[in-house]
Design brief:
This protein is an alpha/beta fold. The chain has helices at residues 14-19, 61-64, 69-79, 88-105, and strands at residues 21-24, 29-31, 56-59, 84-85. A four-stranded mixed sheet has the order 2-1-3-4. Strand 1 and strand 2 form a beta hairpin.
Amino acid sequence: MSHEFLRIWQEFDIEEVKNHLLILGDVSGDCGACRELGIPYLEARECPKCKTAFKYVTSRRLETHPGERFQIVSRLRSRRPELIFIDYDDYKRTLGRKKARDFFEK
């Protein structure tokens, strides 16, 4: 049986995702909650600064290297299977809409 990755849309509370998100760069990760930089994403279960547990993960490389999308997800999934992978573009777009709504509601 062959297993492949498919993008599936599911509703999430964007604040929940933001507060438990590990954002991958090329070498290390950032905390979505406190923006701490340089987190070793293969080992870190929580942010070393704010102690938030990571539940979700995304990668900026998905935008800059679209041809590597499935390789990035596959590698990360094999090393960190407990994390839910979030598409970076979807996350940034949704967070931007929420910030705009919050700004105009004030």
